[in-house]
């Protein structure tokens, strides 16, 4: 594990202290959780931007965001992103599902 040191505004520090108390967790753990959550949201935003700009496929966006394919599809729908999903793509996905089925 690496160490990261940074200065934060008083307001953010107070928020961290409040979260420590509410979560009954140590400061380092609180900050790790907050950073992990922020990174996850940042990756999702970048993946959605890539989809919107047609720079990423749904699969590559899902992989980048660390989400299952279906969850990425839901996120794209929530973000109002229409996907170019052809009949050929559907057939490919159905074949993949059939191969995994018992």
Describe the structure.
The chain is built from 5 helices and no strands. It has 102 residues and is mainly alpha-helical. The protein has helices at residues 10-23, 27-52, 58-65, 69-78, 87-100. The termini are far apart. It has one domain (10-100). The protein is elongated. The model has no long low-confidence stretch (mean pLDDT 92). 71% of the residues lie in helices and 0% in strands.
- Total number of domains: 1
Strand content: under 5%
Distance between the termini: 40 Å
* Structural class by SSE content: mainly alpha
Percent of residues in helices comes to: over 70%
Which residue ranges are poorly predicted, with pLDDT under 50 across at least 5 consecutive positions? Answer: none
**SSE string, helix = H, strand = E?**
HHHHH
Mean pLDDT: 92
Number of strands: 0
The number of helical runs is 5
> Sheet with the most strands?
none
Multimeric organization: single chain
Rg calculated over all Cα atoms: 19 Å
Shape estimate: elongated
Summarize the structure in short.
The protein contains five helices and no strands.
Name the descriptors.
5 helices, single chain, 0% strand, 71% helix, mainly alpha, 102 residues
Set out the fold topology.
Elements: H1 10-23, H2 27-52, H3 58-65, H4 69-78, H5 87-100
């Amino acid at each position: 594990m690496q160490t990261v040191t940074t200065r934060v505004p008083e307001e953010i520090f107070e928020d961290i202290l409040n979260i420590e108390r509410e979560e009954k967790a140590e400061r380092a753990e609180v900050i790790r959780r907050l950073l992990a959550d922020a990174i996850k949201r940042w990756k999702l935003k970048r993946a959605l931007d890539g989809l919107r700009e047609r720079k990423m496929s749904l699969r590559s966006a899902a992989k980048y965001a660390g989400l299952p394919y279906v969850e990425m599809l839901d996120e794209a729908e929530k973000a109002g992103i229409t996907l170019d999903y052809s009949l050929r793509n559907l057939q490919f996905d159905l074949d993949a599902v059939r191969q995994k089925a018992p």
